[in-house]
Design a protein that fits this description.
This protein is α+β, with helices and mostly antiparallel strands. Helices cover 53% and strands 21% of the residues. Strands 1-2-3-4-5-6 form a 6-stranded antiparallel beta sheet.
Length: 258
């Protein structure tokens, strides 16, 4: 009931409230500073990683440009391919779009199209340069036959020969020569409708009689023109297509991060 006591109690309560408010403000300020510091550390890591990535992308683009300067023909790889096959006696046209991995090679007058995907590269097992105990002279002799030896890298493709509504489809690879891994016979309507791949289109190629396999090879090589000239030129074509798309991809990623 003493007014003085009530006044002192009021001052004590007000002082405690002010102390609590200051403590809360300090805690809030510390939390804000912590959040800002965390964001700063994340931002620094982002800038650091981004700068490093941009540097590596620039180096890779420089390497690709230098390779293009060393081999200017890579800019006109489609024209070079068509000219090479024309000189070898095979007339073809090539269809492809920038940004697409697909290349289509049509054989003029034969209703046959070879479809490549530049991502479908097959790497073979690496072999030793020469067998144990082989001398340098023997190694040099072997190098003279390198053009006829597999390089360890090939590209899968599909060769489609049409006749009306029916199709003969060869699953192939190209290195220094074309190899066949499968042959299927179907119709356009059957292929379009058979999404679950249950129709019988033919046996495994290596299960066929040797004489039949050789006859298929003769048809593909002699009649359609997929000989060694085609195999080597097609491999170079697909490699250069992949390089062109890779370079465009590098430019796109770099532009995105700049």
């Amino acid at each position: 009931g003493n007014p003085r006591c009530r006044f002192e109690l009021f001052l004590f309560s007000a002082k405690n409230c002010e102390m609590m408010r200051c403590a809360m403000m300090r805690t809030l300020a510390q939390q804000q500073r912590g959040a800002l510091a965390a964001r700063s550390r994340v931002g620094w890591r982002w800038l650091s990683g981004r700068s490093e990535l941009l540097g590596v992308l620039s180096d890779e683009l420089t390497y690709e440009r230098e390779g293009e300067e060393r081999n200017p023909s890579s800019k006109n790889f489609v024209e070079d391919f068509v000219a090479t096959l024309k000189k070898a006696g095979t007339a073809v046209t090539v269809s492809h779009e920038p940004g697409s991995a697909i290349l289509e090679v049509a054989f003029v007058g034969k209703d046959a199209v070879a479809t490549f995907d530049c991502r479908d590269v097959v790497f073979g097992e690496e072999e030793d340069d020469y067998e144990e105990g082989q001398g340098e002279g023997e190694k040099e002799d072997d190098e003279s036959d390198d053009d006829d030896e597999p390089s360890g890298e090939s590209y899968e493709f599909e060769l489609t020969v049409k006749k009306g509504d029916t199709m003969l489809i060869f699953d192939c690879e190209t290195d220094n020569e074309v190899t066949i891994s499968g042959v299927s016979f179907t119709s356009s309507s059957t292929k379009a409708a058979d999404d679950d791949d249950t129709s019988y289109e033919g046996p495994k190629f290596d299960h066929l009689d040797d004489a039949l396999q050789e006859a298929f090879y003769a048809y593909v090589v002699d009649d359609l023109g997929l000989n060694k000239d085609f195999a080597k030129a097609a491999k170079a074509l697909v490699q250069k297509k992949e390089q062109a798309e890779y370079k465009a991809w590098l430019k796109g990623v770099k532009a995105f991060l700049d």
